[in-house]
Predict the structure.
Amino acid sequence: MNSISVTLNDRLIRVPCGTTIMEAAAQAGIAIPSLCYLKDYNQPAACRMCIVEVKGAKGPVTACDTKVAEGMKIQTESEFIRSQRKMNLELICSNHRQDCTNCQRFPYCDLHRLCREYGIDDRIHRFSREPEIDASAPHMIRDQSKCILCRRCISVCEKIQGVCAEGITGRGFDSHISAGALDLPLAASDCINCGQCLAVCPTGALMVKDDMELVVRELNQRKKHVLAIVSPELGQWLGTCFRLPGKDDETLKMSGLLHKIGFQGVFNLNAVAAKQEDLLRAELETHTFEGKLPMITADCPAWLNFCSARYPQLEKYLSAQESRTVYAARQVKDAYAQVNDISANDIFIVTINACVAAKTKTKAAGADCPVDVHLTLHELYRLIERVCISTRTAQEIWQTAKAAPFDNIGVESDNEYNDPDVFPVNASVQEIFAGNRTLSCITVSGLNAAVPILERVSRGDPVCGLLRVKACPGGCGNGGGRIRCYDYEAVEGDNEL
Ligand code: FES
C-alpha cells in the first residue's frame, strides 16, 4: 500500500494512503478526544470533539472523517482548538441532563470525563432537561435526556449485530434515537437484548437495568442463603473497575470479596456449567440419528431472540440446552439444598457475568427459573462499592481484599478455568465427539458474522455437525454487561472461516 508523509504536532510520520487524521494520530500515539467515533463502524462527525487544525484549511476539521494528504501539517492541540472543543462540549451539555452523582455510568462516562478535562462548569447546565426514561425492556434503560445523538448504538445494532432495532426519528431539536420509525418502547421493538449498544454508549443514555438493590436487600435481610455463581474472568476486569488491574489472583480475590460481603456460597460458573457439555454431546447423538444437523446451540438468550425473529425455520435444529446461568443455578440450588438440608425456597441465587441478555432469564424479570437476579460486571462493581464504601475507598477495598477459593458442593467440574463458552474469536472450526462419531463444530460469535452460515443452513446445507452461535462479537466475555468497548477490531478477530 502506498504511504504518504504528514506532519503531526511538528513530527514527521508516514502513514498509508486513505488513513484518517484520527487513525494517523493513533498510529503516532497521539490521543484526540471523541464522543461519536467508533473505529470502522461510526464516523458521523456528529460531536465535533475531534477537531484539529490543518495548515491552509479555512477552519478546524474533524479528525475522524478527514483523510490525510501528502505534506499535510496537522496540529491536534492548541489554545484555539481547546476553546473550540470546549464550546462544542458546552453545546452538547446544554441539551444533556446532568445528574452525574446519581448516574449509573459514573465514573465511566466519556462526556463527564471530557467536561472535567475541558473545565465545563456543570452548574450552568444542571438538570437542563427532565428525565425521559424507557424502562420497558428487562435488560436495559434508555434515558433520552442524556443522549447526545452520537449514533454509536445505531451503528453497532446495524453493522455489528445486523438487527437494526435503532434509528433516528424527528428533526432538529426533536431528533432522538428511537426503536424504529414508530418510536416504539424498547420492549416492543426488534431489540434482541444483546446489550452491545450499552457497551458503546458514551454517556448514561443507555444503561443496564440495575438489579443491584435487590441483592443488597437480600444480603441485609439475611433471611435466605444468598449464593453467587460468577464467571471467573470478571476478576481481572473488576480490578480494572477499581483502576488496579494486572494481578494474577484477582479471580480468587473477587471470590473472597463476595464471601466477605455476605454471600454464603460463591461458585465458579465455568466449572459448574462445564458438565452441560456432556448433555450437549448426548443430544447431538440424537440429532445425528434423526438427521437434524447441524444441531444449533440455544444457550445464548440474545441469539435465541434473533433466531425466532429472523430464522424461525431453523428452530427445529435448536438444542434443548438452556442458558448456562440457568443450568448452573439449577445445579447449585439442588445440591446446596441437599447438602445443607434446607428448602430450595430458602436459597437466593445471583448469577454474575458479562452477559446482559441473561437478565431476561430471571425471576426478577418474571421468568420461571432458578435464577433470582442476574448482575453484570458494572453492577457487581457497584454492589461492592455500595456494601463496603462507608468505611474505605473503593481502591482500598480491592487492594486489601483477601483471596478465597470458590466453594465446591460436588457439582463442579475439575476443569475450573477451561471455559467452553468464552470463545476467543469470531468464528472457528473444531471437532466434537458425539457417541462414536466425530463431527465438525463451528463456533461463530457476533450475529452479522453468523448470518452467512445461517443462510446456508436455511438453504439445506448442513455446513457442520454442531453450530455454536453466540450473539456478542468475541463471545460471552464481550457481552453488553462489560464496562466499555471502543474498538471492535480487538474483539472480533478473524472473520473468515
Ligand atoms: S469523533 Fe469526530 S465528530 Fe465525533
